[in-house]
Specification:
Layout (H helix, E strand, L loop, with lengths): L15 H12 L3 H20 L4 E3 L3 E11 L2 E9 L23
Antiparallel strand pairs: 1-2, 2-3
């Protein structure tokens, strides 16, 4: 049985600046390198959704476009996003499927 849950607290929507700041902080990469990468990624995701393509993005989840509607001020896309449950046993950043090695000290 599927149970619908609502967020515990409602907060303001994340904007691009907030996303860039959060990725900069989490990754330790300089903002001048993070911003163009995020802009390119968002553009590619937007184009894929506009084309009706399904996306499978670990960390975000599986995104499936259910339907779309053309309106006078833009297009509306109804999507379904499925995120797997977080694995609480594994430490943060310890992903056995991650092909990247840790940086040498």
């Amino acid at each position: 049985m599927v149970q619908e849950t609502k967020p515990a607290t409602v907060s303001a929507a994340m904007r691009k600046k907030g996303l860039v700041d959060a990725v900069t902080e989490r990754s330790g990469v300089k903002r001048k390198f993070v911003k163009p990468a995020i802009e390119a990624a968002l553009a590619e995701i937007g184009e894929a959704i506009a084309a009706g393509r399904d996306l499978n993005l670990p960390g975000l989840g599986k995104i499936k476009v259910q339907r779309s509607k053309k309106m006078s001020n833009g297009d509306v896309y109804i999507t379904r996003i499925r995120r797997p449950l977080a694995n609480t046993d594994a430490p943060a950043g310890d992903d056995p499927k991650d092909p990247l090695a840790e940086a040498a000290e």
